[in-house]
Design brief:
3 strands; elongated
């Protein structure tokens, strides 16, 4: 049904979330390219309508990954 939730749990609240990670240069762009990098881990509730799902007020900041360089996958797994 188009008017039902993504996950219908009856009277219980059932929620689905997407987990994201993103790295960025906190010093902005420069000619040489990124010299430092830090990251965030965030979550979005998939039960919300698509037009409001990724608005900042509906996102959850799970954690901040410190720099100065982007982590390897092995080290990143410790944060997740």
């Amino acid at each position: 049904r188009p008017d039902s939730h993504f996950v219908d749990g009856g009277e219980e609240g059932c929620y689905a979330f997407a987990l994201h990670k993103d790295f960025f240069n906190p010093e902005g762009l420069n000619i040489r390219g990124a010299s430092t990098s830090c990251g965030i881990i965030s979550m979005a509730c998939l039960n919300l309508p698509v037009d409001i799902r990724y608005k900042p007020e509906n996102m959850y900041l799970v954690g901040i990954i410190p720099g100065p360089k982007q982590l390897s996958l092995e080290n990143l797994n410790h944060y997740i």
